[in-house]
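INFO batch 0412 | record 1 of 1 | parsing
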Amino acid sequence: MHFLSGTCLCCAVEVKVELSLLEKEKEVDGLSPNGKASPFADCRPNGALGHGSDDDSTPLPLYHKPRDYVEASVCHVKDLENGQMREVDLGSGRALLIKEHGEFSAMGHKCPHYGAPLVKGVLSKGHVRCPWHGACFNIATGDIEDFPGLDSLPTFQVRVEKDKVIIRANKQALQSQKRSKPMARCSAVINSSSGFSHVLIIGSGPAGLVCAETLRQEGFTDRIVMCTMDRHPPYDRPKLSKSLDSTAEQLRLRSMEFLQDHDIELLTEKEVVAIDVKTRSVTFEDGLRMEYRKLFIATGSKPKPMNYKGKDVTNVFNIRTPEDANSIARLANNKNAVIVGTSFVGMEVAAALTDKAHSVSVIGIESVPFKKALGEKVGKAIMKLKEVVLKSGKVLRADVCVIGAGSIPATSFLKQSGIHLDSKGFITVNKMMQTNVDGVFAGGDVVMFPFPPRNNKKVNIPHWQMAHVHGRVAALSMMGRATDIKTVPYFWSAMFGKTIRYAGYGDGFDDVIIQGDLDELRFVAFYTRSEEVVAVASMNYDPIVSRVAEVLGSGKTIKKRDVETGDISWLIDKGSQ
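INFO prediction complete | emitting tokens
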């Protein structure tokens, strides 16, 4: 792969470089196709609406016959210390056995998001945090308490007899390893052609989808309409740049059937062109007009516009949809691919094309990718995965060109609406995700929101995980159940089978403390402001990022001096077996 800084793009020079791929991590979590439907859920502690677990207090429903269950002795009572977890086999499937405060509990062993083994995660204060992307699950109920992902975990009955720990589990739950929370249905009488919805959601990404599902989980029984410019039901957009061949079906988060079953109406290929906050109405490009009582704007970001010659050419792409990704993969096959921009998306596409394209060249303004986000040392280490630096001024032949030069908020339709936008086009919201207009909420990549760890300074955090949180907070606010944003931002990027994990909010960091070996790409980087750790990134060092997220999420601070010593054993979890 060629990496060029400050280069122009046209049509000559060919430089071919052999790239030896590093051995892939076993998990390749950034790529694992989600296949069938899945992730998401709101996360009230202990899920008051009932959690579908199979515990002692609930009599067995009549339709659950004994043969639907499996029971197994899984270990001796003294095999687990307090604070330890073990993955155990019940014959019909596996479960995660946990011991905390002298009590045993058992639940699904795989994170419903991408299937990470939770035994390798972090157990703390009644929940388990996923080692890959930081989702949290309550060990008593299995409910998801922090994101990413949509679904919760099944829980299983545990008892101790004659010093043996025995688990009784529903076979179907053991197989599926996930469950969605109970949801209310819509009781309002609705004419589907009616131009009124109690809640109208613009955007079908994680913020919009979690908002809709949270409303139903919390007992909301009026009409919910979610509209999107996409032609597909909600899908896992972060995978587009990591797995270019994936179809919309493989990336699907929720099926149309799922949405219909829970009375969440989805309007596809609908672009909003105007909002009238006085009449509480939205106008679409096709002329449709819909009134609302509550509005949630979660339109995400769009590619930063670029000026280049030949805008009508068919081999220049931004990567926004499964069709874009599929076209890039097809056109780059044994051809010359050029990536413009060193954003995470641009670099992920470059990595994904190395085993397809004849050559891959990356053009960027920065001499080191990710320098602003991850610092120069980490950026250089990652660049070694993909590097041959050429002098500027080369002219490259491009059979397919991918623009990955950053993004801007998709809010131009709000310019005359009276909804407040800042100078960069972001919607400003309060801690309840409410805009300056009554009844209008916003979340996800489009917002500047008050961030508690930075004394409620308004920030923009365009992470997939953070959008889930915004959707949940907005839904609860709409129902008059305001809740604080309690989360640690979590981000990941996957290239060449290697995954970078990142937690915290590192904006404005003034130093980076590296532990481990950058050359071997087995390291942890602590980002500090003044004397405090504000963020962490790692490669091949699990579950350190989730461990740090757990510490930061509990409200504790990690001091710079605590990580400078070289001894970070106190941060590395010894609790799993």
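INFO post-check: Residues 354 and 360 are 6 Å apart (CA to CA).
INFO record closed
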